[in-house]
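Exam prep: given the inputs below (a chain plus 2-acetamido-2-deoxy-beta-D-glucopyranose), describe the expected output before reading on.
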Amino acid sequence: PHVLRLSVMLLLLLLALLSPRAAGDPGPRPGSWTWTRTRPRPSPRDSDVYLDLDLSSVRHRVDTRFLSFTIDASLAEKERFMALLSSVKLQTLTKALRPAFLRFGGSRQDFMEFQPGESKGPRNLTSEESCGLTLLPWWLEEQLKEEWAQFQEILIKEDLEADYGDLKFTATTVDQLYSFSSCCGLDLVFGLNALLRTKENSWDGANAALLLEYCQARGYRMSWELGNEPNSFRKKAGVVVDGQQLGRDFAQLRELMSRFELYRQAGLYGPDVSQPRHRRLYCCVCVCVCVCVCLSYYVCGRDTSLNDFLNPDILDTLNDNITKILEVSVKHGAPGKPVWLGETSSAYGGGAPGLSNAFVAGFMWLDKLGLAASRGLQVVMRQALIGPGKYQLVDPNLDPFPDYWLSILHKRLVGRRVLRVEMLSQLGQGERVRVYLHCASKRRYAAHTHTHTHTHTHTHHRKHQQTNSPQTVIKYPTCPRQNVMLNGVVLKMVDDRTFPDLRGTRLPPADRLQLPPFSMAFFLFHEAGAPACS
Ligand SMILES: *[C@@H]1O[C@H](CO)[C@@H](O)[C@H](O)[C@H]1NC(C)=O
Ligand SMILES: *[C@@H]1O[C@H](CO)[C@@H](O)[C@H](O)[C@H]1NC(C)=O
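Solution:
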């Protein structure tokens, strides 16, 4: 084990979407290599990418819970499935992603009504106590997982038809959700139903008041949202709520919260709009929330392809959308308010089978995390930890999908401070290699040795010529398979409580970094001498 000075660690996240062909390569391969056809055959040197790193200043500082995630409200459609949250395996996997927000919401939140009941059981539990609150016997867990896998088909069909029945949820659901988030060290964000409306079409907060009352009586520290995708209320419920009305609804919720000791200072986030063009919804709501929240998906799950998942133009739509959101939030009403991606994944409609749950989804996921941080977004909430569809972090058996492993590497390695990095390359379409630079997270790592071929990256430290080569570089490479391989080993839990080895590989001293095509890697530079990270 090799413990180094932490204050100067730097982290570089590199995604190679497409790598140019090396000499002797037989030619274009299936997939989206097409750019090589329009250019003369590149010489091997063309595969070099030069990076200009600015280590002198911090560009943005993201929230400590930058990488966060959601639980889709559909888990509560049948109360018994909430018991899956007591699974030791799920709790182990989730704890490893803290600190994080846990947003409970989604399309069904606007069809859910709270049925208050007796407040039961001990209050104000510590997180340890919350973990042991309900024991899920193995046979029940197996049975629930099986039923859950089948029930997902029904949920996906409902989503497809935007056909949601009214759904009552009890105190048990709230207790299970809160125990889970408390046990796993998460900050719970609960999405309230905005479709409970009066004849005059203003929000009816009576049911929310019952829920806040119950949660306060239980000592539940949490924050709130109101409505999911208000821009699609017409499609889902035949109701139109315009920006001004939604703004008044949020103000009403804020007033309601102020009547509760525990929620007077609590977070209120919104409006969870899924299209940046709905300016009025943002403008009217962002003024009275603590954080301006938007939703984001690249493609439709039923109508997409492998090429889309690797297409830099599609990845870049996120950048354009962030520009629009920041414009709305800065120019109209909420300058300086943090902006979050409050629900986001690769493909909407539950994800794309065979893509959203495969290694290839990682390009969208890591690029989104890198891009959002480089644009100063504070939090990115991944849809979803668990829920119906293909874009979850865990499968119906509660085993990790590839994006889970990338999330955990990101959580462990990537720090809050975002630095500037520019890429200079002969690739023409340089976007096919994506690079993000952060100060490393303050944790310690050990290293061992390994080598690689193909894309070469030269780093050049602007303004800090004296510190040319970092002393030690540790690489966390992942390889394209259905599963995620780290350092050539398929990542897989050892058992319900034990993680596989997630250590990187210490590279021999060299002036370039190498990256194979279609791969992602985190490079950790020790002793980089980055003033921005000290
Ligand atoms: C439990 O939480 C409630 C609500 O925050 C608070 O009023 C009460 O003092 C807490 N009790 C203990 C024992 O901490
Ligand atoms: C950006 O917005 C467009 C238009 O609203 C949408 O089609 C696209 O999916 C969005 N992309 C992302 C990544 O949010």
